[in-house]
Here is the input.
Amino acid sequence: MKLFLHAHATHPDAHVALALAAAQIAAQRGAPDHAADPTLGWLYLTDHYAAAAEALLADARNRWPGVAWVGAVGVGIAANGVEYFDEPALSVMLGDVPIADFRVFSGARPLAGFGAATAQVHADPATAELGELIGEMAERTSTGYLFGGLASARTRCLHLADGVFEGGLSGVAFSADVALVSRVTQGCQPVGPVRSITDAERNVVIRLDDEPALDCLLRDLAIEGMDAREALPRLRQTLVGLSERDEAVLSRPGQFGADTRVRHLVGLDPGRRGIAIGDHALIGQQLAFCTRNTEAARRDLVRICSEIREELEPEALPLATALALQDSDADGAPHPARRIAGAVYVSCAGRGGPHFGAPSAELAVVRHALGDVPLVGFFANGEIARHHLYGYTGVLTVFPG
Here is the structure.
């Protein structure tokens, strides 16, 4: 695949924004290294444009006939090196994925008769039993690998799949002939040891390592005996990292592994000395208390970008090519040896903006690591990778050229 076409724009009028993006794409389309005949498009909208989603999709279809569309609404959206929050904006990418190698699906258009190896999924966070639906969807792919996220909005939580939908899930499935490289980056840091859930009821963890869970929490946060008024701010900042019995909780000391799902601490149960979490708690699961940590999130994002680069770059490069890659790192321009046609980045709405210290800082890290490659995405109400639903993470997926 050639370099995908991509653009982003902001304007009070949604259709003017799309026209501005279309002009950017038209300028790229004549370049020999860019896709000439796109077949698949991604369209992400901030929630300011949610009311115009159907009209915008129709406009996009008219501008680029024959292109299938997927996307979502977010409280923020991403482009290469840029993120838009609290303003009307859209991000577009068009790729030349062979038509026989992908299939757009939704509740109105079930995925049937297609050999899916992987799939990108968007969903409405209000959908009942969403975790089970994601698991079932993963089982319908030969690799079990999904990537994507939950729509996020202060208005309508919409997702796009050749139509505009509320509720359920939709997306695009890819055959085994469509290569992709995907990584999960964590945004939280453990503040205590990894423990095993030894007694639980629904979402209440009663015992950890055969000790009262509340006692473990107070000990790990070093707030035993502290006045309740003083302890409350620490408790409000505390989250929990969950993983299954056979999954690696830590990838290295002080850093969660990719399988850990972060959930909210939603309450305490003083009567049973338990804690309530924002998920079902199962005996045998592993749990570690954690907090959001900007520096840990930045380090982990750099790590996954580096892993992707190493996987995509040839092991042995001619000297001239290696020097050209160094130059591309300096000026942000893409280089063919990096073999990136396009990328999709889905990050948690709780990570974007100020969490990384400055506007667009998170996307700046990705751009610095990957170069000026086509990229779109959004800030989600939950992130999807493999068969898991995550929180406070980023999911970066790259399509090699």
User: Anything to note?
Assistant: Confidence is low (pLDDT under 50) at residues 316-326, 330-337. Residues 45 and 251 are 34 Å apart (CA to CA).
